[in-house]
Amino acid sequence: MSEKKKSSELRRSMPLLPIGTVMQLTELSARQIRYYEEHDLIQPHRSDGNRRMFSLNDVDTLLEIKDMLEQGINMAGIKKLFDMKKNAAVQSVQAEKEISDSELRRILREEMRNANRHQKSTLRQGDLSRFYQ
Amino acid sequence: MSEKKKSSELRRSMPLLPIGTVMQLTELSARQIRYYEEHDLIQPHRSDGNRRMFSLNDVDTLLEIKDMLEQGINMAGIKKLFDMKKNAAVQSVQAEKEISDSELRRILREEMRNANRHQKSTLRQGDLSRFYQ
DNA sequence: AATGTTATGTTAGGAAAACTAACATTAATA
DNA sequence: TATTAATGTTAGTTTTCCTAACATAACATT
Question: Signal peptide: which range, if any (chains A, B) (predicted)?
Answer without folding.
Answer: none
